[in-house]
């Protein structure tokens, strides 16, 4: 009986922790111009699944977006985070990656 109760508590704890982690994702993605539709968590993170180190765009978002009230700012949109010659605004409009220099509009 005690073993079963303990198992139920562990399962419940895992459920609530997973729900808390999952709820962070849509919140942050909703701040991006494309709502993270194209690259998901990989828009800002090196790992496409999210968490861990940030790519060039994620680092700029951390510096300007998070400190500016956790939003995609005009200044951030005008920057070229990955230094590929294309602004972040243009990258989002084109569906290319603002944090990956090898991803940019072809024309
Ligand atoms: Ca790019």
How is this structure best described in words?
This protein has 107 residues and is mainly alpha-helical. The protein has helices at residues 2-29, 56-66, 74-78, 88-94. The chain has one domain (2-94). Helix content is 48%, strand content 0%. The structure holds calcium ion.
Number of domains: 1
Count of DSSP strands: 0
Distance between the termini: 67 Å
- How many strands, which pairing sense, and closed or not: the largest β-sheet? none
Which small-molecule ligands are present, each listed once?
A: calcium ion
Work out the helix count: 4
Shape: elongated
Given as residue ranges, the uncertain stretches (5+ residues, pLDDT < 50) are none
Q: Nearest-angstrom radius of gyration?
A: 18 Å
SSE diagram, text form:
Blueprint: H1 2-29, H2 56-66, H3 74-78, H4 88-94
Bound molecules: calcium ion.
Provide a brief overview of the structure.
By secondary structure, the protein is mostly helical. It contains four helices and no strands.
Properties at a glance:
mainly alpha, binds calcium ion, 48% helix, 107 residues
């Amino acid at each position: 009986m005690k073993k079963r109760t303990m198992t139920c508590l562990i399962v419940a704890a895992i459920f609530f922790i997973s729900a808390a982690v999952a709820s962070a994702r849509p919140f942050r993605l909703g701040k991006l111009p494309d709502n993270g539709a194209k690259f998901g968590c990989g828009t800002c993170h090196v790992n496409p699944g999210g968490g861990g180190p940030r790519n060039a765009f994620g680092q700029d978002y951390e510096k300007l977006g998070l400190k500016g009230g956790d939003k995609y700012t005009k200044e951030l949109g005008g920057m070229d985070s990955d230094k590929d010659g294309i602004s972040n605004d243009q990258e989002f409009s084109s569906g290319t990656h603002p944090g990956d220099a090898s991803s940019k509009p072809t024309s």
